[in-house]
């Protein structure tokens, strides 16, 4: 039943959402059409101009981003993106992520897999057994149980394709109540052996040890290739955020499985030459701050890009990917085909052309100093971006609709008051 939904119903769902969207608000870029971008006689969005998106939040589920981006009276009709989804309908986009996990485990997705042992139902059952056998309760204990259950049942090479796509379904199935719980995929730079093809030479450093404790020389690709999880929840101490890694996954470079962002390896300052960690045999090894950064650590990522340690565009695309995953982690409703190239010049990910410094720092401030209000803004922004990409369709090689087709996006303002713009298409 779940695989039928994944393969068939999403196409019908997407077809209903083909809308003429977006708009032109003052300003053009060099090489693009001239004019002030405001043309009330035009009946479709000009792809060669910069224009701002506005939202008609009919259901009131976009929060502050809807309030801040209400359409003015003189705006073109096609500048306005309508939101009619209720909270239950938005939640369904996460609950049905289990369909992707089931398809992945059966070897039926576009991801490179022959499938894994077990099913999501078996993981849910094992999660309950592990969780209820511990003395601890709450969202952290549940998340640890879920990660351990997946490892026992499927031992997937890429557990990020399974764990966050089962989490909220499992909570619902088991009748648990964890306020504001969310487990979402995000991306990070991690160190790898310097012997790997593609490692940036300027990132290679010595660990001071050797196999089997750790590689003698390590570096990075300068890309956010590694998946980790962003855990959010509310407890008696307020709103909480944790970075989560799979237990036993390359233990030579991780302090532990689950940690507050402010105390994680990802926020080790670049001013520090190295820091020491205890390896698998109790020996100290050197680790390097430039080998760790996530899609949510804006200030450090900017410095790494300026120093040539992180490729341009990696942070922007990974951050927007995280925001979209908050809405639909499994991508069931996006219809992204195998081998699709999104954006100009063969970009990996969406064509996110620009994030302002003010906006990037406001995202990082939320991660290190979370609150319920900021969390609602974070989720609301993800929903707004999802709606933008949802209305921009192209076709894949089969003629099926493709989510987020060739959509250049610019974000200004702050998390509390963001503004979203279409950038002129350059290819």
Automatic annotation (TrEMBL):
Highest taxon above the source species: Archaea
PROSITE patterns xref list: PROKAR_LIPOPROTEIN
Name this protein carries in UniProt: Uncharacterized protein
The species this protein was found in: Halobacterium hubeiense
Source taxonomy: Archaea, Methanobacteriati, Methanobacteriota, Stenosarchaea group, Halobacteria
């Amino acid at each position: 039943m779940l695989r039928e939904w994944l393969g068939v119903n999403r196409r019908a769902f997407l077809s209903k959402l083909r809308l003429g969207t977006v708009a032109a608000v003052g300003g053009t870029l060099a090489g693009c059409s001239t004019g002030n971008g405001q043309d009330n006689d035009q009946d479709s969005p000009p792809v060669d101009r910069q224009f701002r998106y506005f939202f008609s939040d009919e259901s009131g589920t976009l929060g502050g981003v809807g309030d801040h981006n209400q359409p003015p009276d003189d705006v073109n009709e096609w500048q306005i993106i309508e939101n009619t989804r209720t909270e239950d309908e938005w939640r369904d986009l996460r609950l049905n992520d289990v369909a992707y996990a089931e398809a992945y485990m059966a070897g039926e997705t576009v991801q490179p897999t022959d499938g894994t042992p077990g099913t999501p139902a078996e993981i849910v059952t094992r999660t309950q057994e592990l969780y209820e056998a511990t003395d601890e309760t709450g969202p952290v204990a549940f998340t640890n149980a879920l990660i351990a259950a997946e490892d026992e049942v499927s031992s997937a090479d890429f557990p990020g394709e399974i764990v966050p796509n089962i989490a909220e379904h499992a909570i619902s199935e088991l009748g648990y109540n964890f306020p504001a719980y969310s487990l979402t995929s995000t991306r990070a730079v991690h160190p790898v052996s310097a012997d790997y093809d593609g490692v940036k030479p300027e990132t290679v450093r010595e660990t001071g040890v050797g196999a089997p404790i750790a590689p003698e020389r390590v570096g990075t690709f300068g890309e956010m290739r590694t998946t980790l999880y962003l855990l959010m929840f509310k407890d008696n101490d307020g709103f909480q955020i944790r970075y989560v890694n799979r237990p036993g996954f390359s233990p030579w470079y991780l302090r532990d499985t689950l940690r507050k962002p402010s105390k994680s390896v990802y926020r080790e300052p670049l001013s520090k030459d190295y820091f020491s960690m205890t390896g698998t045999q109790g020996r100290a090894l050197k680790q390097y701050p430039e080998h760790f950064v996530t899609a949510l650590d804006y200030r450090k990522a900017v410095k790494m890009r300026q120093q040539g340690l992180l490729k341009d565009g990696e942070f922007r695309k990974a951050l927007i990917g995280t925001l979209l995953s908050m809405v639909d982690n499994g991508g069931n409703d996006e219809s992204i085909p195998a081998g699709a190239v999104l954006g100009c010049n063969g970009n990996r990910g969406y064509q996110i052309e620009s994030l302002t410094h003010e906006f990037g720092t406001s995202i990082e401030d939320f991660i290190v100093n979370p609150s319920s209000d900021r969390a609602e803004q974070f989720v609301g922004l993800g929903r707004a971006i999802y709606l933008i990409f949802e209305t921009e369709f192209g076709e894949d090689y089969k003629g099926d609709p493709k989510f987020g087709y060739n959509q250049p996006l610019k974000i200004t303002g702050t998390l509390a008051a963001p503004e979203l713009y279409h950038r002129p298409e350059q290819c």
